[in-house]
Write a structure and sequence with these properties.
mainly alpha, single chain
């Protein structure tokens, strides 16, 4: 149980750090190429989903990948939402936030199942 909690914490931290790094790089790309604001939300969602998948693939092992993955995916979305809201200076929970949490849980569950079933890692 303790090991599973640490795996979820490590996967969550990895997803949050990856997400922050990707958003930082993407903000430079937006500035550099003067991209439309219409691309920001979809690209951010894809980046967040990929970062959640990476965290699960890197840190989830053993058994219970579906549950551990869904838990860390939802927590990672909530954590990044709080961080981005603090940076923006506004916090509002809407139905879109609930949809993002569900998407994060689904991405985490899939990556968790794949991560725990990948062989050759110790």
């Amino acid at each position: 149980m303790r090991e599973s909690v640490f795996q979820v914490i490590k996967a969550t931290l990895a997803a949050v750090i990856f997400s922050l790094a990707c958003v930082l790089v993407f903000s430079f790309v937006i500035q550099l190429f003067d991209l439309s604001s219409a691309v920001i939300k979809p690209v951010n969602q894809v980046l967040k989903t990929l970062c959640i998948a990476a965290g699960g693939l890197l840190f989830l092992r053993g058994s219970g990948g579906l549950i551990k993955g869904a838990a860390y995916g939802a927590v990672a979305v909530a954590a990044t939402y709080v961080i981005y809201s603090a940076i923006a200076g506004s916090f509002a929970v809407t139905w879109l936030f609930a949809a993002e949490v569900l998407l994060g849980a689904a991405a985490g569950a899939v990556s968790g199942v794949i991560g725990v079933n990948m062989g050759g890692r110790g």
